[in-house]
Automatic annotation (TrEMBL):
Presence of the UniProt keyword Membrane in the record: no
Gene Ontology, cellular component aspect: cytosol
Keywords linked to the UniProt accession: Glycosidase, Hydrolase
InterPro entries: GH, GH_1_N_CS, Glyco_hydro_1
Lineage: superkingdom: Bacteria
Record organism: Streptohalobacillus salinus
GO biological process: carbohydrate catabolic process
The protein, known as: 6-phospho-beta-glucosidase
One example GO MF annotation: beta-glucosidase activity
């Protein structure tokens, strides 16, 4: 028998802004991703202050505009997902396709109809959609006019958006996620909260205020889903990285615990337990943070807790209280120092399969809610051989090692309900805006210079993952 329960949700994950394309079609408005350039400057913009949200087409390419053109090729792509045996497909709805500016009173029918077609195509193959409501796609008008999630008005606009999609798709979608990687907002408020801090001095204050608005919006969305779609399940979505102390020095252990509390558990505690955690008051006091709340906010948060916990896992994080620039982990997006026991990907992301087992145990031990891994994968350079084959054994090795640790976590007693590998088809990297950072089982002929035919090709990992799904994880 397989370690994984019958009905385990195997599949793949994407985001509209990274693969959909059609950025100026079907009445869609501009969103945040449309003004993020491709290439090495992107990460600098994501983490710095004062981004102006304007496009400079003479200086930059904007790969998110075309993505991999799922907008026109969704039937072909979904057929390939079905051939792999997907039980579930994680995707997001582009908010600006439904409300082009974000603050309209009536939704865009062309946008609603597009997702109707996508959901109908998935249903044809018995693939369940898992829909992220907000995945780094804040409408640009809400950013420029209102200042993004710093502004309480976005709660009202988000209410209108979720009511529109819940009512429209209530017979087609029962599993939803509210905000993608919500806890990453303090590291990169640009993508998570739709604003660029004017300075580092206000970064934390504005970020945590924006998070509070998202907590209220998420809780209200959970309540609306349960009312509009009976039997629906709504999850939170965290970016999770177990935090290790660099050594057994108690100072480093305490520092690692504090970092883990704020990064891994603060948002989860609010969304799963329905209350701000005990440790946050001291952190707010130390950092001069004051959250403005309305009278019923805490009640709303308490009454709108999620049904399950989903998360992305790419790397662990090693912390040292006092670190030199030389010790800094180069590629790990969430900080820390280099872990001497781990190898890294081509982009410097440390590879730690055992960390996934640790993450699953930590999350389940804390929350006792069903867990779902909705992002995990290896960004790598892929080579097309002369015969057309793409032999990505390195990706198979990476995924095999992580799924093996998932099995161990299930044996530990963790209630794991699904796994969707990130970028199941090649797409535009969020952190670098590159096509060359490939994650997929399906190769897309599109390149960083804008060239390419968009032709789809199966990689070696395609048939490997098909076998994993068919055996319910027994054959790796």
């Amino acid at each position: 028998m397989s370690t994984f329960k019958e009905g385990f949700l195997w599949g793949g994950a994407t985001a509209a802004n990274q693969f959909e394309g059609g950025f100026d079609e079907g009445g869609r408005g501009l969103n945040l991703a449309d003004v993020l350039p491709g290439g090495k400057d992107r990460l600098k913009l994501l983490t710095s202050s004062g981004f102006d949200f304007e496009m400079d087409t003479e200086k930059y390419r904007y790969p998110n505009h075309e993505g991999i053109d799922f907008y026109h090729r969704y039937k072909e792509d979904i057929a390939l997902f079905a051939e792999m045996g997907f039980k579930v497909f994680r995707m997001s709805i582009a908010w600006s396709r439904i409300f082009p500016n974000g603050d309209e009173t009536e939704p865009n029918e062309e946008g609603l109809a597009f997702y109707d077609r996508v959901f109908d195509e998935l249903a044809k193959y018995d693939i369940e959609p898992l829909v992220t409501i907000a995945h780094y796609e804040t409408p640009l008008h809400l950013i420029k006019e209102y200042g993004g999630w710093k502004n309480r008005k976005l709660v009202e606009f988000f209410d209108r958006y979720v009511e529109a999609i819940f009512n429209r798709y209530k017979n087609k979608v029962t599993r939803w996620l509210t905000f993608n990687e919500i806890n990453g907002a303090t590291h990169m408020p640009l993508v998570g909260l739709g604003f660029s801090p004017s300075s580092d001095d206000v970064r934390l204050q504005e970020s945590f205020q924006g998070l509070h608005h998202q907590f209220v919006a998420s809780a209200r969305a959970v309540q609306k889903a349960h009312a509009i779609i009976p039997g629906s399940q709504v999850g939170c979505m965290l970016i999770y990285a177990p935090v290790y102390a660099y050594d057994s020095n108690p100072e480093n252990i305490l520092h690692a615990k504090k970092e883990a509390d704020i990064f891994n558990f603060f948002c989860g505690d609010v969304q799963v337990r329905g209350e701000y955690p005990y440790f946050i008051d001291h952190y707010f006091e130390e950092n001069g943070i004051e959250i403005k709340m309305e009278e019923n906010d805490l009640t709303t948060i308490k009454q709108g807790t999620v049904d399950f916990v989903s998360f992305s896992y790419y790397m662990s994080r090693t912390e040292k209280k006092e670190k030199t620039p030389e010790e800094q982990g180069e590629g790990n997006l969430i900080g820390g120092v280099k872990n001497p026991f781990l190898k890294a990907s081509d982009w410097g992301w440390e590879i730690d399969p055992v960390g996934l087992r640790i993450a699953l145990n930590e999350l389940y031990g804390r929350y006792r809610k069903p867990l779902m891994i909705v992002e995990n994968g290896l960004g790598a350079y892929d080579k097309v051989e002369e015969d057309g084959s793409i032999n990505d054994d390195y990706r198979i090795d990476y995924l095999r090692a992580h799924i093996a640790q998932m099995k161990e976590a299930v044996k530990d007693g963790v209630d794991l309900i699904g796994y969707t590998s990130w970028g199941c088809i090649d797409l535009v990297s969020m952190s670098t805006g590159q096509y060359s950072k490939r994650y997929g089982f399906i190769y897309v002929d599109k390149h960083d210079d804008g060239s390419g035919t968009l032709e789809r090709k199966k990689k070696k990992s395609f048939d490997w993952y098909k076998q994993v799904i068919a055996s319910n994880g027994k054959e790796l």
